[in-house]
Specification:
Length: 293
């Protein structure tokens, strides 16, 4: 889904799919904060003596780029980009080959028609494969539907319809969190859609900030929303790692000596680290743009 959104983000106003633009958005905005958070979690667990978090170095490197699902999915040694449906190089191929079709579909069917197509495709996959999360997550209809869903988010955002963007974000995010019984594949897509929509809304607010001078209160509220929406993306990316391992340990597994205080302490530390990484990443991207220009 992030792949589709980033592909649309870099090409919806142009005619062709731009691999350099896609890579710049993905590498600068997603990889550094997640990599630092992931590294911090690994160090924390190893420092606490958790033998259950013994991740080989080669697999850790693959995890950073989202490739471990191809070579070691069955091992299931820890959280990774794979669980978010983010296949780094595979996504580039899918985006480059399918983006002309997706672009045509968005123009012909519009956002509503495209989202309806996503729902139908994933419903058929659900009926055919049952509730097996592994099969659903790796099935072609879910992968392509997720990609198109991300493109739809960017299309809504680029129309500068703030109300529509905020509504899509809120409905998707809350549906993924509240609705009981959803398959993990569908739940993560809904939450991810809401999170990415918040970040897209953040970009829109940043761009619209210079069009007219807002009141002091509105400007302050906008700054708070921008910061919160940026942190939400990074929170979503690392929360699976923390919840997958920390919650069971905090529930009473004394073997790992990991308590509830450690869990919340780790949460606060990771939020601070990811916020710093996000700020540094933004400065790095700005510097690269100025250098190239």
């Amino acid at each position: 889904m992030l792949s589709g959104a980033l592909a649309a983000r870099t090409t919806l106003r142009d005619e062709g799919f731009s691999i350099p633009g896609y890579l710049r958005h993905r590498a600068l905005r997603l990889l550094p904060p997640l990599w630092l958070s992931w590294l911090l979690i690994c160090v924390w667990y190893m420092a606490r003596g958790s033998f259950h978090f013994d991740v080989p170095a080669w697999r850790f490197a693959l995890t950073v780029f989202g490739l471990d699902g191809y070579v070691s999915y069955a091992l299931n040694l820890g959280p990774s980009f794979y669980y978010c449906g983010e296949w780094f190089y595979g996504a580039i191929v899918i985006a480059a080959v399918l983006w002309p079709l997706m672009r045509w579909l968005l123009r012909r069917a519009g956002v509503a028609g495209s989202v309806a197509l996503v729902v139908v495709a994933e419903a058929l996959a659900f009926l055919a494969l049952g509730r097996d999360a592994t099969l659903l997550w790796r099935s072609l209809p879910v992968c392509l539907g997720s990609y198109l869903l991300g493109a739809c988010v960017s299309e809504v955002r680029l129309t500068r319809n703030v109300v529509a963007s905020a509504s899509v974000c809120a409905v998707a995010f809350l549906s993924g969190l509240i609705i009981v019984g959803l398959p993990p594949a569908v739940r993560f897509q809904l939450v991810g859609l809401g999170v990415f929509g918040l970040v897209e809304l953040r970009e829109q607010l940043l761009e619209s900030g210079g069009e007219r001078r807002p009141s002091e209160g509105l400007a302050r509220a906008r700054r708070v929303l921008v910061r919160l929406s940026g942190l939400t993306l990074y929170f979503f990316m690392w929360q699976f790692a923390v919840i997958r391992w920390a919650v069971p340990l905090a529930a009473g597994s004394v073997d790992h000596a990991f308590g509830a205080f450690d869990y919340w302490g780790l949460a606060v530390i990771v939020i601070l680290v990811t916020a710093l990484a996000a700020a540094l990443t933004q400065q790095l991207e700005r510097g690269i743009r100025e250098f190239v220009a």
